[in-house]
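> call design_seq(struct)
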């Protein structure tokens, strides 16, 4: 895959002691979409930085605990990528952070991402009418998310109150 090719390219540069490689890498010639670049960026923090530390003989003070905060993990991703994101993310964490206790807090607007989480691990934020402040919505008001189909998740967890089709199509049909 494109990501594996990128990782292999960077790793080769590291091992020939080209320490400024990250500064001069041009992503555009690799023919990556914005979604591929977003995934490459997220996964590079998990996979490449520890390798860079090793190659550059950088010793970081580490602990056995880690908190990862990821905003919009699905950003720019094709639905098929969204469907696979959490499995790839978990596999990457398991392989790169062995022996550590990892807590992950992430946000998403994707029902495909949400379907990989049980309802008790989800916090719903909702704005009240005429209010610009998001508040926590009681999860008891929501159906089970784990393994749920995306239609159910879109209607239930993303607060679709005005139909399930685009506004333009709705205006033309009605």
């Amino acid at each position: 895959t494109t990501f594996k090719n990128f990782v292999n390219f960077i790793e080769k540069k590291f091992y020939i002691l080209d320490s400024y490689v990250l500064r001069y890498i041009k992503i555009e010639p690799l023919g990556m979409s914005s979604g591929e670049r977003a995934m490459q960026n997220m996964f590079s923090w998990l996979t490449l930085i520890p390798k860079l530390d090793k190659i550059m003989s950088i010793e970081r003070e580490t602990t056995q605990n880690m908190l990862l905060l990821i905003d919009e993990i699905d950003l720019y991703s094709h639905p098929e990528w969204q469907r696979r994101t959490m499995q790839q993310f978990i596999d990457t964490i398991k392989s790169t952070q062995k022996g550590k206790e990892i807590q992950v807090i992430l946000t998403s607007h994707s029902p495909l991402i949400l379907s990989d989480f049980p309802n008790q691990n989800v916090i719903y934020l909702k704005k009240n009418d005429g209010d610009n402040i998001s508040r926590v919505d009681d999860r008891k008001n929501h159906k089970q998310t784990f393994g749920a189909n995306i239609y159910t998740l879109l209607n239930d967890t993303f607060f679709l109150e005005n139909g399930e089709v685009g506004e333009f199509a709705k205006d033309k049909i009605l």
